[in-house]
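Format notes (please read before filing issues)

Several people have asked whether sequences and structure tokens are stored in separate files. They are not. Every record keeps both together, in the order shown below: the sequence lines, then the token lines. Line labels are part of the format and must not be stripped during preprocessing.
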Amino acid sequence: MTMQPPIRPEYQFDLPPIEPMSLATPLPWQTRLWNQTWLRKSIILLVLIALWEGAARWQNNDLLLPGFIQTLTAFGQDMASGELPAKIGISLGTLIKGYIIGTVLALVLSSLAVSTRIGRDTLSTLTSMFNPLPAIALLPLSLLWFGLGENSLIFVLVHSVMWPMAVNTYAGFLGVSDTLRMTGRNYGLRGLRYVWYILIPAALPAILSGLKIGWAFAWRTLIAAELVFGASSGKGGLGWYIFQNRNELFTDRVFAGLISVIIIGLLVEGLIFSTLERITVKRWGMQK
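Then the structure lines:
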């Protein structure tokens, strides 16, 4: 006789109605405002300015430490007169020339290093020798070889840009995955075409880092070199502007020149390099 399991009675339970979900309480406007990065940075900047102005008023000596308001007045006067824009134009013109030459040479060295054994040994030897060498230390030789002119500054700028750029670019080339390398080889890419279509796009984050480091080194080197070059030739850019006003004891204008250096650095970093990263590596998902 076949055993059948007992039939279980069905039960129906009335569930309580689902209560409407309440929306999360929005954050207070103070919290939402404080979450803005630009606001926090602006507050930090205002605090630094207040400390500067307070220290200047407590010191009460314009020759040693002019206040922020006095410095801003000198900055506005020299911008309106055209003296400061002219000095900035001279410095940026020289910087762009040295920066472009140094970047091209760094890319050539890195491409040779990743393509040939002798290129790799050459880059390793040269970077070990010259990368630790401060560019400003070459200024006396540069003045001896190229004379009192723009070429002397370009020489030290090329030195300051080329080695950190080459090191970062070569490290980026080495970090390219084997899959991409084999893909390029399978498509028959060799030499410069292989570097241009495979290595440079894949190593773009490292290349951009090298460009930023090279820019920072070049900008600092240029200002330092112009202090010496300007004192020797009687002309120059922002460095000469700072040196000349220091000799004439216009300390507020010295601070105005320093503020110009900082503003240009912030603009290049915040506008040019940030835009490049946003439209390339961040857009492509290569960097967060």
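For reference, the curators noted about this record: The domain at 69-279 is CATH 1.10.3720.10 (MetI-like fold). The two ends are 72 Å apart (CA to CA).
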